[in-house]
Amino acid sequence: MAGRTVSNSVIRRLPRYYRFLSELRQKGTTRISSGELAAHMNLTASQIRQDLNCFGGFGQQGYGYNVDQLQYEIGRILGLDTEATAILIGAGNLGQTIATHINFKKCGFKLVAIFDQNEKIIGDTVGDLKISDMKDLSAYCRKVKPDVAIMCIPRAHAQEIVDELLACGVFGFWNFSQRDLVIEDERAHVENIRLADSLMALRYHIGK
Amino acid sequence: MAGRTVSNSVIRRLPRYYRFLSELRQKGTTRISSGELAAHMNLTASQIRQDLNCFGGFGQQGYGYNVDQLQYEIGRILGLDTEATAILIGAGNLGQTIATHINFKKCGFKLVAIFDQNEKIIGDTVGDLKISDMKDLSAYCRKVKPDVAIMCIPRAHAQEIVDELLACGVFGFWNFSQRDLVIEDERAHVENIRLADSLMALRYHIGK
Fold it and tell me: Which one of A15, A182, A189, B134 is CB 3.0 to 4.6 Å from B197, fit for a cystine?
Protein backbone atom coordinates (compact mmCIF):
# COMPACT_ATOMS: atom_id res chain seq x y z
CA MET A 1 0.00 0.00 0.00
CA ALA A 2 1.28 3.48 -0.83
CA GLY A 3 1.94 6.14 1.75
CA ARG A 4 2.98 4.11 4.79
CA THR A 5 5.38 6.92 5.73
CA VAL A 6 2.81 9.69 5.50
CA SER A 7 2.82 12.00 8.52
CA ASN A 8 0.43 11.31 11.33
CA SER A 9 -1.32 14.68 10.96
CA VAL A 10 -2.23 13.86 7.35
CA ILE A 11 -3.54 10.45 8.39
CA ARG A 12 -5.63 12.08 11.11
CA ARG A 13 -7.30 14.21 8.45
CA LEU A 14 -8.14 11.34 6.09
CA PRO A 15 -11.20 10.13 8.05
CA ARG A 16 -12.52 13.69 8.04
CA TYR A 17 -12.08 13.97 4.29
CA TYR A 18 -13.75 10.60 3.92
CA ARG A 19 -16.68 11.61 6.10
CA PHE A 20 -17.21 14.93 4.33
CA LEU A 21 -17.01 13.30 0.90
CA SER A 22 -19.65 10.78 2.03
CA GLU A 23 -21.95 13.66 2.93
CA LEU A 24 -21.34 15.26 -0.47
CA ARG A 25 -22.14 11.98 -2.24
CA GLN A 26 -25.37 11.67 -0.30
CA LYS A 27 -26.31 15.15 -1.50
CA GLY A 28 -25.54 14.14 -5.08
CA THR A 29 -22.48 16.38 -5.46
CA THR A 30 -20.13 14.91 -8.06
CA ARG A 31 -17.13 17.21 -7.91
CA ILE A 32 -15.50 19.66 -5.54
CA SER A 33 -12.62 22.12 -5.76
CA SER A 34 -9.72 22.10 -3.33
CA GLY A 35 -10.94 25.56 -2.23
CA GLU A 36 -14.36 24.24 -1.22
CA LEU A 37 -12.83 21.22 0.52
CA ALA A 38 -10.44 23.59 2.31
CA ALA A 39 -13.22 25.88 3.54
CA HIS A 40 -15.08 22.95 5.06
CA MET A 41 -11.98 21.40 6.63
CA ASN A 42 -10.60 24.67 8.01
CA LEU A 43 -7.43 24.23 5.95
CA THR A 44 -5.92 26.11 3.02
CA ALA A 45 -6.42 24.88 -0.53
CA SER A 46 -2.69 24.31 -0.86
CA GLN A 47 -2.66 22.17 2.28
CA ILE A 48 -5.46 20.06 0.79
CA ARG A 49 -3.49 19.61 -2.41
CA GLN A 50 -0.41 18.69 -0.39
CA ASP A 51 -2.31 16.16 1.71
CA LEU A 52 -3.79 14.44 -1.30
CA ASN A 53 -0.52 14.55 -3.21
CA CYS A 54 0.96 12.32 -0.51
CA PHE A 55 -1.17 9.59 -2.01
CA GLY A 56 -0.60 10.45 -5.64
CA GLY A 57 -2.94 13.34 -6.36
CA PHE A 58 -6.42 12.58 -7.78
CA GLY A 59 -7.25 16.17 -8.68
CA GLN A 60 -7.32 17.75 -12.12
CA GLN A 61 -6.28 21.37 -12.62
CA GLY A 62 -9.37 23.52 -13.17
CA TYR A 63 -11.79 20.67 -12.59
CA GLY A 64 -11.28 19.85 -8.94
CA TYR A 65 -11.83 16.45 -7.43
CA ASN A 66 -14.25 13.77 -8.50
CA VAL A 67 -16.14 13.14 -5.25
CA ASP A 68 -16.87 9.43 -5.84
CA GLN A 69 -13.34 8.65 -6.90
CA LEU A 70 -11.68 10.63 -4.14
CA GLN A 71 -13.83 9.03 -1.47
CA TYR A 72 -13.13 5.59 -2.89
CA GLU A 73 -9.38 6.20 -2.97
CA ILE A 74 -9.22 7.60 0.54
CA GLY A 75 -11.25 4.64 1.77
CA ARG A 76 -8.82 2.29 0.05
CA ILE A 77 -5.82 4.09 1.58
CA LEU A 78 -7.35 3.82 5.03
CA GLY A 79 -8.05 0.14 4.39
CA LEU A 80 -11.83 0.42 4.70
CA ASP A 81 -12.36 -1.81 1.68
CA THR A 82 -11.15 -4.88 3.59
CA GLU A 83 -12.16 -6.15 7.02
CA ALA A 84 -9.66 -6.35 9.84
CA THR A 85 -10.75 -8.17 13.00
CA ALA A 86 -11.36 -6.63 16.42
CA ILE A 87 -12.09 -8.09 19.84
CA LEU A 88 -13.62 -6.19 22.73
CA ILE A 89 -12.10 -6.56 26.19
CA GLY A 90 -14.54 -5.51 28.89
CA ALA A 91 -18.30 -5.71 28.42
CA GLY A 92 -19.41 -3.22 31.04
CA ASN A 93 -21.56 -0.21 30.17
CA LEU A 94 -18.96 1.43 28.00
CA GLY A 95 -17.88 -1.78 26.26
CA GLN A 96 -21.44 -2.75 25.39
CA THR A 97 -22.14 0.69 24.02
CA ILE A 98 -19.03 0.58 21.85
CA ALA A 99 -19.99 -2.89 20.59
CA THR A 100 -23.46 -1.75 19.53
CA HIS A 101 -22.97 1.94 18.69
CA ILE A 102 -19.94 1.76 16.39
CA ASN A 103 -20.39 0.88 12.72
CA PHE A 104 -17.36 -1.39 12.56
CA LYS A 105 -17.86 -2.38 8.94
CA LYS A 106 -17.76 1.25 7.85
CA CYS A 107 -14.44 1.64 9.66
CA GLY A 108 -12.86 -1.43 8.04
CA PHE A 109 -13.40 -3.82 10.93
CA LYS A 110 -15.44 -6.77 12.03
CA LEU A 111 -16.04 -7.29 15.75
CA VAL A 112 -15.42 -11.01 16.26
CA ALA A 113 -15.38 -11.62 20.01
CA ILE A 114 -16.13 -10.03 23.39
CA PHE A 115 -14.40 -10.94 26.65
CA ASP A 116 -15.16 -10.14 30.27
CA GLN A 117 -14.11 -11.56 33.63
CA ASN A 118 -17.48 -11.01 35.32
CA GLU A 119 -19.10 -14.43 35.66
CA LYS A 120 -22.54 -12.85 35.88
CA ILE A 121 -22.40 -11.66 32.27
CA ILE A 122 -20.26 -14.36 30.61
CA GLY A 123 -22.52 -16.11 28.11
CA ASP A 124 -24.80 -13.07 27.68
CA THR A 125 -25.32 -11.78 24.16
CA VAL A 126 -24.27 -8.31 22.97
CA GLY A 127 -25.28 -7.58 19.40
CA ASP A 128 -24.79 -10.98 17.83
CA LEU A 129 -21.84 -12.06 19.96
CA LYS A 130 -21.69 -14.02 23.20
CA ILE A 131 -19.50 -12.68 26.00
CA SER A 132 -16.57 -15.06 26.51
CA ASP A 133 -14.58 -15.72 29.66
CA MET A 134 -11.37 -13.68 29.99
CA LYS A 135 -9.62 -16.93 30.96
CA ASP A 136 -9.92 -18.01 27.33
CA LEU A 137 -8.44 -14.78 25.93
CA SER A 138 -4.89 -16.01 25.25
CA ALA A 139 -5.95 -19.29 23.68
CA TYR A 140 -8.42 -17.45 21.45
CA CYS A 141 -5.89 -14.83 20.35
CA ARG A 142 -3.17 -17.35 19.54
CA LYS A 143 -5.64 -19.18 17.34
CA VAL A 144 -7.57 -16.32 15.69
CA LYS A 145 -4.89 -13.58 15.71
CA PRO A 146 -7.28 -10.64 15.89
CA ASP A 147 -5.83 -7.39 14.54
CA VAL A 148 -7.11 -5.07 17.23
CA ALA A 149 -8.17 -5.25 20.87
CA ILE A 150 -10.63 -2.64 22.11
CA MET A 151 -9.70 -1.92 25.72
CA CYS A 152 -12.79 -1.03 27.75
CA ILE A 153 -11.51 -2.11 31.14
CA PRO A 154 -10.59 -0.27 34.34
CA ARG A 155 -7.11 1.13 34.26
CA ALA A 156 -5.83 -1.10 37.08
CA HIS A 157 -5.84 -4.10 34.74
CA ALA A 158 -5.19 -2.48 31.38
CA GLN A 159 -1.42 -2.89 31.27
CA GLU A 160 -1.29 -6.56 32.24
CA ILE A 161 -3.89 -7.44 29.64
CA VAL A 162 -2.02 -5.48 26.99
CA ASP A 163 1.14 -7.43 27.85
CA GLU A 164 -0.81 -10.68 27.54
CA LEU A 165 -2.21 -9.62 24.16
CA LEU A 166 1.20 -8.55 22.82
CA ALA A 167 2.57 -11.97 23.79
CA CYS A 168 -0.21 -13.53 21.71
CA GLY A 169 0.57 -11.41 18.66
CA VAL A 170 -2.12 -8.73 18.98
CA PHE A 171 -0.54 -5.41 18.02
CA GLY A 172 -3.43 -2.97 17.53
CA PHE A 173 -5.13 -1.28 20.48
CA TRP A 174 -8.13 1.02 20.67
CA ASN A 175 -7.71 2.18 24.22
CA PHE A 176 -10.61 3.63 26.22
CA SER A 177 -8.97 3.07 29.61
CA GLN A 178 -7.52 6.19 31.21
CA ARG A 179 -4.20 4.43 31.60
CA ASP A 180 -1.25 5.40 29.42
CA LEU A 181 -0.29 2.01 28.01
CA VAL A 182 3.42 1.19 27.94
CA ILE A 183 4.15 -0.65 24.71
CA GLU A 184 7.68 -0.91 23.40
CA ASP A 185 7.05 -3.34 20.55
CA GLU A 186 7.50 -1.38 17.34
CA ARG A 187 4.86 -3.42 15.56
CA ALA A 188 2.21 -2.13 17.96
CA HIS A 189 -0.08 0.81 17.40
CA VAL A 190 -2.37 2.46 19.94
CA GLU A 191 -5.26 4.85 19.39
CA ASN A 192 -6.39 6.42 22.63
CA ILE A 193 -9.84 7.77 23.40
CA ARG A 194 -9.39 9.87 26.50
CA LEU A 195 -12.85 10.97 27.56
CA ALA A 196 -11.86 12.53 30.88
CA ASP A 197 -8.88 14.37 29.38
CA SER A 198 -11.12 15.86 26.71
CA LEU A 199 -13.71 16.97 29.26
CA MET A 200 -10.99 18.54 31.44
CA ALA A 201 -9.64 20.47 28.44
CA LEU A 202 -13.16 21.75 27.81
CA ARG A 203 -13.41 22.68 31.50
CA TYR A 204 -10.28 24.78 31.05
CA HIS A 205 -11.62 26.53 27.96
CA ILE A 206 -14.98 27.54 29.37
CA GLY A 207 -13.15 29.21 32.26
CA LYS A 208 -15.09 30.59 35.26
CA MET B 1 -7.11 32.88 36.03
CA ALA B 2 -3.53 32.82 34.70
CA GLY B 3 -2.57 31.32 31.40
CA ARG B 4 -5.64 31.96 29.26
CA THR B 5 -3.35 32.43 26.26
CA VAL B 6 -1.42 29.21 26.77
CA SER B 7 -1.09 27.15 23.59
CA ASN B 8 -3.59 24.42 22.94
CA SER B 9 -0.94 21.70 22.89
CA VAL B 10 0.12 22.60 26.44
CA ILE B 11 -3.49 22.58 27.59
CA ARG B 12 -3.97 19.14 26.01
CA ARG B 13 -1.12 17.84 28.13
CA LEU B 14 -2.40 19.24 31.44
CA PRO B 15 -5.01 16.49 32.01
CA ARG B 16 -2.31 13.88 31.38
CA TYR B 17 -0.02 15.51 33.93
CA TYR B 18 -2.92 15.68 36.33
CA ARG B 19 -3.78 12.02 35.84
CA PHE B 20 -0.19 10.83 36.24
CA LEU B 21 0.30 12.95 39.37
CA SER B 22 -2.88 11.40 40.82
CA GLU B 23 -1.40 7.94 40.26
CA LEU B 24 1.83 9.03 41.96
CA ARG B 25 -0.08 10.38 44.95
CA GLN B 26 -1.97 7.12 45.28
CA LYS B 27 1.37 5.31 45.41
CA GLY B 28 2.55 7.71 48.11
CA THR B 29 5.20 9.43 45.97
CA THR B 30 5.80 12.96 47.28
CA ARG B 31 8.19 14.42 44.73
CA ILE B 32 9.26 13.84 41.14
CA SER B 33 11.96 15.28 38.88
CA SER B 34 11.20 16.80 35.50
CA GLY B 35 13.25 13.94 34.02
CA GLU B 36 10.97 11.28 35.54
CA LEU B 37 7.84 13.19 34.52
CA ALA B 38 9.30 13.51 31.02
CA ALA B 39 10.03 9.79 30.69
CA HIS B 40 6.45 8.95 31.59
CA MET B 41 4.93 11.60 29.34
CA ASN B 42 7.17 10.83 26.35
CA LEU B 43 8.48 14.40 26.40
CA THR B 44 11.87 15.94 27.15
CA ALA B 45 12.64 17.34 30.59
CA SER B 46 13.06 20.80 29.09
CA GLN B 47 9.62 20.56 27.46
CA ILE B 48 8.13 19.69 30.85
CA ARG B 49 9.81 22.69 32.45
CA GLN B 50 8.59 24.89 29.61
CA ASP B 51 5.01 23.62 29.95
CA LEU B 52 4.89 24.23 33.67
CA ASN B 53 6.62 27.58 33.38
CA CYS B 54 3.62 28.77 31.36
CA PHE B 55 1.77 28.70 34.66
CA GLY B 56 4.49 30.14 36.80
CA GLY B 57 6.82 27.24 37.51
CA PHE B 58 6.29 25.16 40.72
CA GLY B 59 9.62 23.29 40.52
CA GLN B 60 12.72 23.84 42.57
CA GLN B 61 16.17 23.34 41.07
CA GLY B 62 17.67 20.08 42.33
CA TYR B 63 14.54 19.07 44.21
CA GLY B 64 12.03 18.51 41.46
CA TYR B 65 8.30 18.97 41.85
CA ASN B 66 6.18 18.48 44.93
CA VAL B 67 3.58 15.98 43.67
CA ASP B 68 0.69 17.16 45.88
CA GLN B 69 1.25 20.82 45.14
CA LEU B 70 1.75 20.34 41.40
CA GLN B 71 -1.39 18.24 41.07
CA TYR B 72 -3.36 20.80 43.06
CA GLU B 73 -2.10 23.69 40.94
CA ILE B 74 -2.78 21.94 37.64
CA GLY B 75 -6.26 21.04 38.85
CA ARG B 76 -6.85 24.67 39.75
CA ILE B 77 -5.58 25.87 36.36
CA LEU B 78 -7.93 23.44 34.61
CA GLY B 79 -10.78 24.65 36.84
CA LEU B 80 -11.41 21.28 38.48
CA ASP B 81 -11.78 22.88 41.90
CA THR B 82 -15.10 24.46 40.93
CA GLU B 83 -18.15 22.92 39.30
CA ALA B 84 -19.34 24.02 35.90
CA THR B 85 -22.71 22.72 34.72
CA ALA B 86 -23.35 20.32 31.85
CA ILE B 87 -26.49 19.07 30.16
CA LEU B 88 -26.74 15.94 28.04
CA ILE B 89 -28.57 16.09 24.72
CA GLY B 90 -29.57 12.63 23.55
CA ALA B 91 -30.20 9.77 25.97
CA GLY B 92 -29.71 6.82 23.62
CA ASN B 93 -27.17 4.09 24.32
CA LEU B 94 -24.18 6.37 24.01
CA GLY B 95 -25.71 9.26 25.96
CA GLN B 96 -26.76 7.04 28.85
CA THR B 97 -23.29 5.50 29.01
CA ILE B 98 -21.65 8.92 29.08
CA ALA B 99 -24.05 10.04 31.82
CA THR B 100 -23.20 7.09 34.04
CA HIS B 101 -19.61 6.25 33.07
CA ILE B 102 -17.98 9.69 33.31
CA ASN B 103 -16.86 11.02 36.67
CA PHE B 104 -18.09 14.56 36.04
CA LYS B 105 -17.09 15.89 39.43
CA LYS B 106 -13.49 14.84 38.89
CA CYS B 107 -13.51 16.79 35.60
CA GLY B 108 -14.90 19.97 37.17
CA PHE B 109 -18.52 19.47 36.11
CA LYS B 110 -21.93 18.62 37.41
CA LEU B 111 -24.42 16.97 35.07
CA VAL B 112 -27.66 18.86 35.74
CA ALA B 113 -30.14 17.77 33.05
CA ILE B 114 -30.73 15.24 30.28
CA PHE B 115 -32.87 15.84 27.18
CA ASP B 116 -34.26 13.54 24.52
CA GLN B 117 -37.01 13.78 21.92
CA ASN B 118 -38.06 10.14 22.20
CA GLU B 119 -41.38 10.10 24.05
CA LYS B 120 -40.83 6.50 25.10
CA ILE B 121 -37.92 7.43 27.36
CA ILE B 122 -38.90 10.97 28.50
CA GLY B 123 -39.44 10.75 32.26
CA ASP B 124 -37.12 7.73 32.67
CA THR B 125 -34.30 8.06 35.16
CA VAL B 126 -30.61 7.92 34.23
CA GLY B 127 -28.30 8.06 37.23
CA ASP B 128 -30.21 10.49 39.45
CA LEU B 129 -31.67 12.62 36.64
CA LYS B 130 -34.97 12.36 34.80
CA ILE B 131 -34.93 12.59 31.02
CA SER B 132 -36.63 15.84 29.96
CA ASP B 133 -38.46 16.62 26.73
CA MET B 134 -36.36 18.29 24.04
CA LYS B 135 -39.21 20.74 23.57
CA ASP B 136 -38.25 22.28 26.92
CA LEU B 137 -34.57 22.68 26.02
CA SER B 138 -34.58 26.39 25.14
CA ALA B 139 -36.66 27.46 28.11
CA TYR B 140 -34.43 25.46 30.43
CA CYS B 141 -31.21 26.87 28.98
CA ARG B 142 -32.37 30.47 29.09
CA LYS B 143 -33.17 30.00 32.75
CA VAL B 144 -30.29 27.81 34.00
CA LYS B 145 -27.52 28.90 31.55
CA PRO B 146 -25.62 25.59 31.59
CA ASP B 147 -21.95 25.92 30.67
CA VAL B 148 -21.69 22.88 28.43
CA ALA B 149 -23.95 20.75 26.26
CA ILE B 150 -22.89 17.15 25.64
CA MET B 151 -24.03 16.30 22.13
CA CYS B 152 -24.92 12.61 21.86
CA ILE B 153 -27.38 12.88 18.99
CA PRO B 154 -27.38 11.69 15.38
CA ARG B 155 -25.53 14.00 13.07
CA ALA B 156 -28.60 14.98 11.07
CA HIS B 157 -29.87 17.10 13.98
CA ALA B 158 -26.62 18.18 15.61
CA GLN B 159 -26.22 21.51 13.85
CA GLU B 160 -29.75 22.82 14.38
CA ILE B 161 -29.60 21.99 18.08
CA VAL B 162 -26.22 23.69 18.41
CA ASP B 163 -27.71 26.81 16.80
CA GLU B 164 -30.61 26.68 19.26
CA LEU B 165 -28.20 26.32 22.19
CA LEU B 166 -25.99 29.18 21.03
CA ALA B 167 -29.06 31.41 20.83
CA CYS B 168 -29.78 30.52 24.47
CA GLY B 169 -26.27 31.40 25.61
CA VAL B 170 -24.71 27.92 25.80
CA PHE B 171 -21.16 28.18 24.48
CA GLY B 172 -19.42 24.95 25.48
CA PHE B 173 -19.89 21.74 23.48
CA TRP B 174 -18.65 18.23 24.09
CA ASN B 175 -19.47 16.78 20.72
CA PHE B 176 -19.86 13.03 20.17
CA SER B 177 -21.80 13.38 16.92
CA GLN B 178 -19.79 12.66 13.78
CA ARG B 179 -20.82 16.01 12.38
CA ASP B 180 -18.33 18.87 12.12
CA LEU B 181 -20.21 21.60 13.94
CA VAL B 182 -20.18 25.04 12.35
CA ILE B 183 -19.85 27.61 15.12
CA GLU B 184 -18.74 31.13 14.36
CA ASP B 185 -19.36 32.67 17.76
CA GLU B 186 -15.96 33.40 19.27
CA ARG B 187 -17.21 32.73 22.77
CA ALA B 188 -17.89 29.11 21.86
CA HIS B 189 -15.58 26.18 22.42
CA VAL B 190 -15.99 22.66 21.08
CA GLU B 191 -14.25 19.47 22.13
CA ASN B 192 -14.87 16.67 19.67
CA ILE B 193 -14.80 12.96 20.40
CA ARG B 194 -14.60 11.31 17.01
CA LEU B 195 -14.88 7.60 17.63
CA ALA B 196 -15.16 6.53 13.99
CA ASP B 197 -12.28 8.79 12.89
CA SER B 198 -10.07 7.28 15.57
CA LEU B 199 -10.98 3.73 14.56
CA MET B 200 -10.31 4.53 10.89
CA ALA B 201 -6.88 5.93 11.77
CA LEU B 202 -6.15 2.71 13.62
CA ARG B 203 -7.36 0.74 10.60
CA TYR B 204 -4.79 2.61 8.52
CA HIS B 205 -1.97 1.91 10.95
CA ILE B 206 -2.50 -1.82 11.27
CA GLY B 207 -2.28 -2.09 7.47
CA LYS B 208 -3.10 -5.39 5.68
Answer: A15
Angle between helices B8-27 and B34-41 in degrees, nearest 10: 110
Kindly state the percentage of chain B with pLDDT values over 70.
Answer: 93
Give the chain A residue nearest B17 (alpha carbons): A197
Q: How far is B74 from chain A (nearest CA, A)?
A: 10
* CB-count burial class (<10 Å; 0-12, 13-18, 19+) for A9: exposed
pLDDT tens for A126-172 read 999 999 999 999 999 999 999 999 999 987 889 999 999 999 999 99
Amino acid at B1: M
Torsion angle of the four alpha carbons B151, B153, B154, B156, in this order, in degrees rounded to the nearest 10: -70
What pLDDT digit, counting tens, does each position of A85-132 carry?
A: 999 999 999 999 999 999 999 999 999 999 999 999 999 999 999 999
Nearest CB neighbour to A206, from listed B84, B103, B208:
B84
Nearest CA in chain B to A2: B207
By Cβ distance, the residue of B11, B16, B196 closest to A15 is B196
Closest CA–CA distance from residue B103 to any residue of chain A (Å): 8
* CA pair distance B25, B72, nearest whole angstrom: 11
Contacts of A196 in chain B (CB under 8 A): 15, 19, 102-103, 106-107
**Cβ distance of B147 and A4 shorter than 8 Å:** no
Task: Show contacts of B1-10: CB within 8 Å, 24+ apart.
Answer: B1/A207, B1/B77, B1/B79, B2/B55, B2/B56, B2/B77, B3/B54, B3/B55, B3/B77, B4/A207, B6/B54, B6/B55, B10/B51, B10/B54
Alpha-carbon gap, residue B94 to B126, rounded angstroms: 12
Give the best residue of B51, B200, B208 to mutate against chain A (max A CB count within 10 A): B200
Inter-chain residue contact B199 with A180, CB threshold 8 Å: no
